[in-house]
């Protein structure tokens, strides 16, 4: 079978540390085109991966011999670039959050349906071994009825990760639209939906912009979420933590699951009868690992194309996770409990 040809739009940190190396490591694909409005960055990645460099994504879509496109650009460009790529007959892997509004997310989903091509959103938390094991235990009934949860995703901020440092688009509302909630919170809304196996219906949130100078987006948020069956819990997303915290705790009637909350064990199960089971399943990927651990996002996306299956985080899934974040922003602005859109 001939290899699937890939084009990557955006040559910043997420493509350098995640998309490009993971495509390069996959023997089912080859990187043939890269694009960035900063010519030097496009040229650098093109040379590294033996690809053609572009500074205009529309030119890349029209001219390059590609079947797959990764969209690794600022948030406000996710929808228009993904739609253009889908309309050009390409499969699309889009970074999160998939869009900056439900309307744009729906337009992406429609474009995927009309083109008959795959659309996947790069939510990587579902593929973390501890998270997959926790879902398995919940589905088997070992945890019993789930009553509550708390999850956090925080680190010192994108200036330590972004290729542009403190000048990054992450801090500009017109380009990012959402700050820590879009960068980190949306990962956790997706994870919780996956673990609990149900949707969130109501959100109450405090979303603040107090930790970063010269920033026009949120950087510190705490939300209370309620699921359709009445599970309530908290989600925190922050760019103000001194060290990364990517932990989740699920409280069930038979057991408490502690995910990524222990320095050695990626999953700790504390049963009601006093028994504790520790799992060493490998570390969760983080900004601090320099891209050493695979996210399995690329692998999963490529497999869905090769085997013609629905990507696990398709457009509909991405939109449901986005809608929880949009409801949190609305709640913070209105000081009301907000219903999550369906």
Question: Can you describe what's shown?
Answer:
The chain has ten helices and 15 strands. The chain is α/β, with parallel strands linked by helices and 342 residues long. The chain has helices at 13-24, 39-49, 57-63, 78-87, 102-115, 129-139, 173-176, 180-196, 297-306, 315-334; strands spanning 4-9, 29-35, 52-54, 68-71, 91-94, 119-121, 146-154, 200-208, 220-227, 232-238, 248-252, 255-259, 267-271, 276-279, 338-339. α5 (102-115) links the parallel β5 (91-94) and β6 (119-121). The strands form two sheets. Strands 14-13-12-11-7-10-9-8-15 form a nine-stranded mixed beta sheet. A six-stranded parallel beta sheet has the order 3-2-1-4-5-6, sandwiched between helices. Helices cover 34% and strands 24% of the residues. α4 (78-87) packs parallel to α5, α5 runs antiparallel to α10 and α6 runs parallel beside α8. It folds into two domains: 4-123 and 297-311, 3-Layer(aba) Sandwich (Rossmann fold); 125-289 and 319-339, Dihydrodipicolinate Reductase, domain 2 (2-Layer Sandwich).
């Amino acid at each position: 079978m001939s290899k699937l040809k890939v084009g990557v739009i955006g040559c910043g940190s997420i493509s350098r540390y995640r998309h490009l190396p993971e495509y390069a490591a996959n023997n089912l694909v080859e990187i043939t085109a890269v694009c960035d409005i900063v010519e030097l960055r496009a040229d650098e990645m093109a040379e590294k991966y033996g690809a053609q460099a572009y500074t205009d994504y529309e030119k890349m879509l029209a001219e390059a011999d590609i079947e797959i496109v990764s969209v690794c650009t600022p948030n406000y460009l996710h929808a228009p670039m993904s739609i253009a790529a889908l309309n050009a007959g390409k499969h699309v892997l889009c970074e999160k959050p998939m869009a900056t509004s439900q309307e744009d997310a729906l337009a992406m989903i429609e474009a995927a349906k009309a083109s008959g091509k795959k659309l996947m959103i790069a939510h990587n938390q579902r593929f973390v071994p501890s998270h997959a094991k926790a879902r398995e235990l919940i589905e088997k009934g070992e945890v019993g009825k789930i009553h509550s949860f708390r999850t956090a995703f925080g680190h010192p901020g994108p200036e330590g990760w972004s290729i542009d440092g403190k000048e990054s688009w992450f801090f500009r509302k017109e380009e990012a639209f959402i700050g820590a909630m879009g960068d980190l919170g949306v990962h956790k809304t997706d994870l919780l939906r996956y673990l609990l196996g149900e949707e969130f219906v109501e959100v109450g949130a405090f979303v603040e912009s107090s930790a970063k100078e010269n920033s026009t987006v949120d950087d510190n948020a705490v939300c209370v979420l309620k699921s359709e069956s009445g599970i309530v819990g908290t989600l925190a997303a922050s760019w103000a933590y001194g060290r990364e915290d990517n932990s989740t705790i699920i409280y069930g009637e038979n057991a408490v699951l502690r995910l990524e909350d222990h320095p050695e064990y990626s999953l700790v199960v504390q049963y009601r009868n006093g028994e504790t089971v520790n799992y060493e399943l490998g570390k969760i990927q983080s900004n601090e690992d320099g891209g050493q651990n695979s996210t399995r996002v690329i692998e999963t996306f490529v497999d869905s194309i090769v085997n013609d299956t629905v990507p696990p985080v398709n457009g509909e899934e991405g939109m449901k996770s986005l809608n929880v974040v949009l409801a949190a922003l609305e709640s913070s602005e209105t000081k009301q409990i907000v219903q999550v859109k369906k």
